[in-house]
Batch of 3 targets.
Target 1
Amino acid sequence: MSQKNPNYRWFVVAVFFFFVLLHQTDKLMIGSLQVQISETFNLDDFKWGLVNSGALAVATILYPVWGYLYDRYARSKLLALASFVWGATTWLNAIVRTYTGFLITRASTGIDDSSYPGIYTLIADYFGPNLRGKVYGILQLAQALGFLVGMILGQMVAPMIGGWRSVFYITGSLGIVIAALIYFGVKEMPRGKAEPEFEEIPEMATFRFSWQEAKQIFKKRTMWFIFLQGFAGVFPWQVITFFFFGYLETVRGYDANGIVTTMAPVILILAFGYFLGGLLGDYFFKRTRKGRILVASVGVLLGAIFLYFAMTTPLDQSSRFFVFMCLTALFMPLPGPNVVATVYDVTVPEVRSTAQAIEYFIENSGAVTAPALTGALIVATGDRSFAILSICVIAWLICFVFYLGALFTVEKDTAHLRLQMAERAKEM
């Protein structure tokens, strides 16, 4: 398929959709396997938390490295490499037979978890600012669907095919297949190609990574608030991913079938929430440069409120619990595509991977402690509900405050980027 074909960019979206879907299946499936894996290695909640914190720690350390490489070299080839690493490390994680080996190999799976800035920046060079939110929403929809597929594999398929190791072999193999598809099927795009100021320019200049421009990232006040909300904002996702299935089993008494029938619709609504967030973000962005931040702030506030109502629902009122979880799932992903799009609304093309990687680095610097902290809090209090709810609600309320701060800076920073792009266009 030719890069000049106007439909080619949607082919690229489709490839990355399946990358995100299968990679998130592989990454998030472990949450639904908590009981099985804990029984294999005789783990308590604290040791289980360490397993997941290890992968987060590795991903955190490598975010700046991946971001720099994506801004210097061909992103498509680096993404193919990341996909191959995903497959290989998942296989290693399935092979080991000791807790120490499992802890180390699970940590190694974090190497490719920091690969996402390359996807988002390459997509930004295929789609202009007014479309990016929707496209990022589609890709993050795949992330939520990966959670659903992982849950099904962990709760229903794994017991039928020989246990958790067998599904790791399957997802690891798919990672290598996707690596080949990206390597041979996805073409690189000049950085900044989709910026509106360059629409009438036949020959794009090559924008190269610059340390001077990288330093400018920290002079954008909007980025300060993006970084701060990222530090707190990923806590709830890690807590829910790694502990919520255990909560459903041990606190609410759900069996595997009950978990799937309850959580499958919730996760489907979560997936739609990503697309809805991108759609609303693009809609309001066309009317005010504050639009994306407004959508994100509403999302975290309502997500916190409805999760509180869900987890304080009496155990015998399963229908009420389900309704509040559906509402939580609708609103909590609204910030996702809008945060990514906002980073690219205020940073120049040649350092966008670096900017996104720094944001993820700061996110994971906080989130790396989330599984271990939650596990320790559960052990200390003996109350899973309290640990999960308190960490999630506090983190989201902190994010809401930082989004309010960004509302006062985002218009100025966005206008400055458009002025920079206009000046570059005149020089071509």
Note: The CA atoms of residues 148 and 263 lie 8 Å apart.
Target 2
Amino acid sequence: MSLPAWLTAERYQARDSFLHRRDARIKLVVTVSAAFAVTLTPEGNWLAFGAFALVVGAFMVLSRLPVGFYLRRAGLALPFVAAAVPLIFTRPGETLFTLPLFGWTASTAGLVAVASIVLKAMLAVLMATTLVGTTPPQALLRALERLRVPRLLSSTIMLMYRYLFVIAEEGQRMLRARESRSASRVNLHAGRSVGWRAGVLGRMVGTLFLRSYERSERVYVAMAARGYDGTIRTVRAEHSPDTFDWLMLLGSLSAFAGIVVYVLV
């Protein structure tokens, strides 16, 4: 048994594309602006959603990331879908259908609301996926710091991101140790009841927490001994925005602002 690949793999995809060469600060500002612009779009404005989809699709093409990469990350929007489904039956409006077993009535307004929420979540997830897929984590964290995000916040995000992989590796070692000490006979069920298995899992999680806490103390002491003062430092030279960066920023912000003004006026 092993941990899922999505937990132990980097999200950044090393490629040579137009977006990979762009400044991390520019991409971060564009992504956040896109999320706000999509959020401000009223429900049921399909023309605006289509325009946003064209812009997001253009960024996806410029990123040259594989389609499978986007499909795997699209699942991040599923919680929004699950939370929005009840609106179909609670939003008043013209009746679409009624569930005979429960007597719930679905409305047109509820369906429009759910579809709008799903589109907003999907567009935001695709933009965020493009950002993390074309920007190394170090560059993204450095961009937060250069955009005057509080140093404490950017440092916390950096340590949290890096320590996720440390915890994942520790979990992998614990799983291998458990398997090496376990044995099962062919055609016979290994282990005991579900409650017993839950107890074993709980103890493993508790042990993992204690090991992670102790290791974090050692990591911080080692960082402090090497001069860590909360500043994010990278080996690569700082990248300055060029003409293409500014053109992408101005073009994207203009497109987002134009769509929002169109739907709000």
Note: The beta strands are 95-98, 105-107.
Target 3
Amino acid sequence: MTEKVKTVLELIRLPGMFTAHADILAAFLITGAGFDQLGTLALLLVSTSCLFSAGMALNDYFDMAVDAEERPQRPIPSGRISRTSAGTIGFVLLGVGICTAFFAGIRPFLICLALTCCIMLYNGLFKNLPVVGPLTMASCRYFNFLMGLSVLPFEGWAFIPLITALYIFGVTILSRKETEGGHAVKTVAVCSLCAGCASLVYYCLYLARVLPVFAGVLLMIIFSTCISARILTLLEKNSPADFQHTMKILLLSIILLDAVIASGAIGIVSAFLMLLPLYIPGFLTARLFRVT
């Protein structure tokens, strides 16, 4: 692998791409779509890959000045890739992602446009705003999951992605402390609370028979408890390295969260057999490239 390829893969945060795949695959499984929809699934996986990569590249494009001070090791401030090249990669990938979603169908295409708007708004305008920034990032994950569900919409489908959106809202708030660390009781509490609220939404969807498998509720409670316990460790160990390591765990755990959500519709065994294999490339690439 050449240095240029490594730099591009670092720019697009390759490990995180597998969490975007997990959203689409989990949603596809929940819809109950058959083999005749596998072509659509492939198109959506390509689209989400492009959109996720574009979002990461444009994040660095817009953050060049901040990264020069706080994250000088990133590709642009370190001089390994120019800002113009990073921007070109980001905007080209956005276009490819939109075009691919168009061929997947009118619903995925429209949701893809909404996702694209959220990506641009977050990176270009809202990122540093206290509440609006995390809400916009949560919307990105919401629409990504919804794009997978749009293959075969059913009653209650638009509420399922709220689980991942709540989770990402908390994670995004926590990420604000990633470079500075320090004692952050409110930030840690909000992030932990979001994980608990995600469980509450899951339980409501179970009661509404949208996610009718009760085992999924139990798994969601276990997941939220473990995630909250991990977050709360930052009250004692709160160096920048501690925050960065926790962020890595929380982001890769999106794959596990998606498996838990899917288990509420198709059962534990099927969901985990389909989704947990994504942990393998996610974990291996996270050893080579930064997740955040």
Note: The CA atoms of residues 118 and 140 lie 6 Å apart.
